[in-house]
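It is worth pausing here to work through a concrete case rather than discussing structure prediction in the abstract. The textbook approach is simple: state the sequence, then state the predicted structure, then interpret. We follow exactly that order.
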Amino acid sequence: MSAFHTLRWIEHSLELLDQRWLPDRCEYLRCDSAMAVAKAIRALVVRGAPAIGCAAAYGVALEAQRLRDVSREQFDQGLAVALTALAESRPTAVNLQWALERMGTRLNALAGSDNTIRARSLLDAAQQIAADDVQINRALGVHGATLLPATACVMTHCNAGALATAGHGTALGVIRSAIEVGKHIEVIANETRPFLQGARLTAWELQQDGIPVTLIADSAAGYLMSTRHIDAVIVGADRVAANGDVANKIGTYMMAVLAKRHGIPLYVACPLSTIDIETPDGAAIPIEERSVDEVAGYRDLRWAPQGISMANPVFDVTPAELVSALITEKGIVRSPDRTNLQTFLAG
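Step two, the predicted structure:
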């Protein structure tokens, strides 16, 4: 396990490692309500599809705890508002909706119980979702590690590590699992503009665990693919459509095209909860747009001129034909088109 916790339950509250301040300082933000968790998700205090799902589940549990002493009607109304607020906090990551549906199912199953029992059960469900996420990532990592040679150079984009999950990670989980079985892995981390998740988070996370990492500008990826032996590109995902199209951090599509050009396999590490069979293809995946201030500068520093037009889509869609395989906790889906994915899920 990593030496830090992305999220932790302490003294009846949820503490989130505030990723806005990494790597400058490591501090936790305490949340005591669903609204506080929703605000933290929107502000990128916590990010990464699995971690968002876990945080949202805890948000429901927090609200149930907060409303234990009100009437049953007020409890139900408050939980309904909480579920809606959390669902609307970020649109692209399907794990968020998956976790909330699981919490909603638990809530409905306890409709006849008193508030204290329901609050306790919802906390148990949230804690189970977080514990399951770590186990899922470890299983996923074991499968993914088989795809890497004994000595490998892996490029990754954005952060799909322990910081993006409840622990171990998806894309970085594959790397951790490969190292655990004795493989020698070095990582090339793209900086991931505009919010610099690769530079601030992936590089920091790998450094904490002593895993060799080289940080590069996103625009250097193609040059390194053409001049240096890179064994694989491994990324995470926020949603995988029924036809195998993958939504991930903006710039992933560019990495996939470059990898295809240079004959490098692109692997997408994703738990089964990220696969959305209700979304037919990538065109149907909602793509979040965030404040253009993230493009204009970072924190208190602005480098873009005033008065110019800007746009900030924060995800893109990589067509399935550019994906060599999906790595899941159940196994590996090679060439994940609609038929192969449906066969895998039915197996």
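Step three, interpretation. The mean pLDDT is 96. DSSP finds eleven helices and 16 strands in the chain.
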